[in-house]
Known about the structure:
- By secondary structure, the protein is α+β, with helices and mostly antiparallel strands.
- Helices cover 50% and strands 13% of the residues.
- The chain has a two-stranded antiparallel sheet. The protein has a two-stranded antiparallel sheet with strand order 3-4.
- Helix 4 (78-88) crosses helix 5 (107-118).
- 15% of the residues are buried.
- GO terms for molecular function: electron transfer activity; heme binding; iron ion binding.
- InterPro entries: Cyt_c-like_dom, Cyt_c-like_dom_sf, Cyt_c_ID.
- Heme c binds at residues 50, 54, 99.
Amino acid sequence: xxxxLLGIPRIGPPPALLRVxxxxxxxxxxxxxxxxxxxxxxxxxxxxNCMACHCVTHxxxxxxxxxxxxxYAHQPDASVRLQRKIIDGGAGTWxxxxxxxxxxxxxxxxxxxxxxxxxxx
Length: 121
């Protein structure tokens, strides 16, 4: 698109369209940043091998963290239940594949992981 403004040809989209595109891009980046674990949470999940079976957005060997968040979304005691599941492990919720117990994870670490997972829904 060529437009002449004050005798100077201008090529490209109108400035208003650029402002809208920039705003959408900024909002999308901010939203994406909210759905990525903090470095500390990611390090904790990696340190305890959570990421060997789980992924943030899609199912691997185990349900994604978003699927887990959706599963617990309407349970009033979701955080406590998820913390126990993280520490004690279990089977049957997502099929036959068992989740091993993570007895090396402290209650505070389980609470941090559960809080992060639940905010992903």
